[in-house]
Give the backbone structure.
Amino acid sequence: MDVAFSGIQPTGDIHLGNYLGALRNWVRLQDSYDAVYCIVDLHALTIPYDPATFAAERLEAAKAVIAAGIDPDRSLLYYQSDVPAHAELGWLLGTMTSLGSLNRMTQFKDKSDQAGEFLGLYAYPVLMAADILLYRANAVPVGEDQTQHLELTRDLADRFNQRYEPIFPLPEAIIPERGARVMSLKDPTSKMSKSDPSETSRILMLDPPDVIVKKLGRAVTDSGTDIRYDWDEKPGISNLLEMLALFTDRSVEALVAEYDGTQYGAFKRTVADAVVAGLEPVRAKYADLDDAEVSQILARNAARGRDRAAPFQDEVMRAMGLRHQ
Ligand code: AQP
């Protein structure tokens, strides 16, 4: 079975962008792939964080991922730092990564403005490549913002295969046709993001229904009154149309035909009702989860991850001349 890998940072509450762009695909791929999903806590250390609350944030992220539909008995879900081979392979790949390729990464430019210019943040894409290549993943379900990192991963895999031994597949990004770039409710020209200072710019996956209704009611729409799918002229309405399409499993075209002419207030309420209904099973599942049980499951999975990663990592070390035979 082909392997799928993806990760999510425990850096704040999971929002609709993370859910629609990545998690829903994670859930789908469980049926057709050998899926490995990580709470990438080592990545989260690359921006300022509070060690006193970090353990609780990791657990929250794990619970949210399970609530979203990941079955940790079927998929290998664990904390990245529990499997040291991620960091080790990150170092090995770092020896083959040119500064020129890292200098092109836009995420570093965006994040270093706030977090400062630190090596960990600069090398983030190399660790991400290691995460993906460790288990020889073929498929990587991510949002559109990760395309550049995926390209680097493929370049590194290819370079390794040419320089040492051909052991890495070149992984493909699995980017959803819709939902790959959910936009902010306050500024629909920038992506919905955990680090946006405005809480009302994003809907959280576990927001209570009344909060979702309120946030969507205040979402920025565009001037005019028509409901059209047009990212240049009507980004706010286009963003809402995509959300509605994703939560109702209908095409944007059918929705435009049905809702054009509807008042924006009423349309936003329709979107809110669909989002609330769509997230209801996630909220219900989350409420059922027990912290201690989730921690035990993740610890068990980490042990499985270490066992599984060891021979793969050994193969890399041998190819690089780090073993006697
Ligand atoms: N707005 C988005 N639309 C679609 N997909 C998105 N993803 C993130 N934002 C959107 C996808 O979510 C997955 C998890 O990403 P992450 O753990 O790297 O999340 P993050 O970067 O901490 O989340 P944000 O909100 O993207 O953080 P900041 O504020 O740092 O920019 C990934 O697959 C990502 O593509």
Q: What stands out?
A: Residues 199-286 form a domain with the Tyrosyl-Transfer RNA Synthetase fold (CATH 1.10.240.10). The chain is about 55% helix and 5% strand. The longest helix spans residues 291-319. The pocket of adenosine-5'-tetraphosphate is lined by residues 8-9, 11, 17-18, 21-22, 142-143, 145-146, 180-182, 191-195 (CB under 6 Å).
